[in-house]
Amino acid sequence: MAAEFLKARSSRYLLWLLGIGTFFVVVSNLGLLSQGKTHLADGTTTAAVLTHDLVRNPFSFLLFAAMAGAMLVSGEYQSGYISRSVLLSGNRNRLLAAKTVISCSIGALFGLLAVVVAVVTGYAGLRSAGHSPVFDRETWLILTGVFVVNVCAAPWGAFLGWLVRHQVASVSLVFFLTMLLDPALSRLAPSVGKYLMTIAMSSVYRDDKPDLLAEPFALLAIAVWLAAAGFGAKKLLAVRDIT
N or C: which terminus of the chain has fewer CB atoms within 10 Å of its end residue's CB? Predict the structure, then answer.
């Protein structure tokens, strides 16, 4: 655990993803705020709705959390360091467990950053528009959901990294599933798409999309996806050559 923590902490990719994610979310929230000010002026929205939209928008950190999880694993295959990691850990299952725990910690880091960015941009944005931000029960439920989906996204990416074993391919797969396949299927077949990983996460951070699962069922769907990916990662790690 200590070795895996040190490797994750000293990785440049983690800082890059944290920085890029923050830049992306802040710019996105500035655009959302600009539109929101117009709607506030013409009375088509309220301060509460705009607050909820601003604090929900940092959910997109989950993409970068999943990429970080994928790179945590696939980067060692890319560099050839994976065999030494197995020797250091004692066996493959211990290494899998250690990286899963570290990936959850990385997800928590992204989740905390997402919450901080959400609160700061939501509060400052509404104040700059001359309105009081509304931090009601719904706001805190949204923030909790944003944190939870980031914690789940990182081990999801890590398990995909175990399955793919290639850094560029695993990161590309994370992007494809999160940004393209899952949203497309949710539009084409909503009754099926709502059970997909990315769309189930939408329920947790209380998106206003139609036809989403109730939150308890969404959390169950996320758990099933994580369990299936983790099981596949464990089986492949046990039977395939690690080099």
Answer: C
Tokens 């050839």 belong to residue: 80
pLDDT one-digit tens code per residue, 210-237: 889 999 999 999 999 999 999 999 999 9
**For residue 58, what are the CA distances in angstroms to 52, 53, 176, 193?**
11, 9, 19, 22
Measured in degrees and rounded to the nearest 5, phi and psi for residue 182 equal -60, -50
Helix-helix angle 47-56:12-42, to 10 degrees:
160
Q: How far is the CA of 223 from the CAs of 61, 152, 229, in angstroms?
A: 19, 9, 10
Tokens of 193: 């798409």
Rounded Cα distance between 199 and 178, Å, is 9
Indicate yes or no: pTM above 0.90. Answer: yes
The identity of residue 46, as a single letter, is: T
50 secondary structure, DSSP code: H
Radius of gyration of the chain (CA): 19
In the chain, the amino acid numbered 57 is N
Give the Cα separation of 224 and 10 in Å (integer): 32
Amino acid at site 209: K
From residue 61, alpha-carbon distances to 28, 33, 45, 193, 206 in Å are: 12, 18, 26, 21, 15
| Of the candidates 242, 225, 237, 89, the residue with the CA atom closest to the CA atom of residue 152 | 225
